[in-house]
Design brief:
11% helix, disordered N terminus, mainly beta, Acetoacetate decarboxylase-like, 246 residues, globular
Length: 246
């Protein structure tokens, strides 16, 4: 997996390989603002309508999971599904940003769920998830439907490292944003997702996000269609940094 020049490997705690979909939707700006803590505010995306703001759904399967400690990488054997909900281009009260705020995560892995809540403030829930054909389905602990996302290819696979797709460029921009979570006591936590594209493949997709039960404040039942920034990826490296509190 490629690594940014000068980045210290000791700043990372976990690594996986990811195969899944990164779906961008645009929702009414006032609804998206409800997903944020009061200390954060929405910035402006470079494109799009002023009355709407992007929300990103990142879902699929992680494998080759490992814990990173200093120079040691220790495989865990864990393989699991996950869906991250993110609000990109947010700013702090001091104007710092842009960043990606994560209001909710749904995971199929118990340890990742515990750590995501205790250390990162990602509001993770341990729930069942699966692919049913071309539809990713997320249920709650009682098997009631939370969301289902239908995905359809909209182009051919390309090597991500050399891709000229505008949608891949949007993925790279997203991967460079600092990540924010909020612990139950209101404390903001900073971390980073490092996405590696050296061995990855990507292709554009169409997608329809069906929210079947409220997932977060401002994210209620409804249907949202993907924007042209949405992609499917395969073989993407994913590393998670140590959390840092404000």
């Amino acid at each position: 997996m490629e690594r940014p020049a000068g980045r210290d490997d000791r700043s990372y705690v976990a690594t996986t390989r990811f195969a899944g979909t990164i779906v961008w939707c645009e929702l009414p700006r006032d609804e998206v603002a409800q997903m944020l803590p009061r200390t954060l505010r929405l910035g402006r995306a470079s494109r799009g309508r002023d009355d709407r703001h992007p929300v990103v759904f990142i879902f699929g399967e992680h494998d080759r999971s490992a814990v990173v400690f200093a120079s040691l990488t220790m495989p865990t054997g864990a393989r699991f599904h996950e869906m991250v909900i993110g609000v990109p281009f947010v700013h702090g009260p001091d104007g710092a940003g842009p960043a990606l705020f994560v209001p909710r995560v749904f995971s199929g892995e118990p340890v990742a769920t515990w750590s995501g809540n205790a250390h990162y403030g990602f509001a993770k829930s341990l729930v069942p998830m699966e692919w049913l054909g071309d539809t990713f389905v997320v249920s709650d602990e009682r098997s009631a439907l939370l969301a289902h996302i239908a995905v359809e290819p909209a182009g051919e696979w390309q090597q991500a490292a050399t891709s000229t797709l505008p949608a891949h460029a949007a993925t790279v921009i997203l991967s460079r944003l600092p990540v924010l979570g909020q612990r139950p006591d209101g404390e903001l936590v900073h971390s980073r997702f490092e996405w590696g594209f050296a061995d990855a493949w990507t292709r554009p997709v169409h997608a329809a996000v069906h929210i079947d039960a409220p997932l977060a404040p401002g994210l209620d039942r409804g249907l949202h269609h993907a924007t042209e920034n949405s992609v499917e990826v395969s073989g993407m490296g994913w590393r998670l940094s140590w959390p840092e509190s404000d």
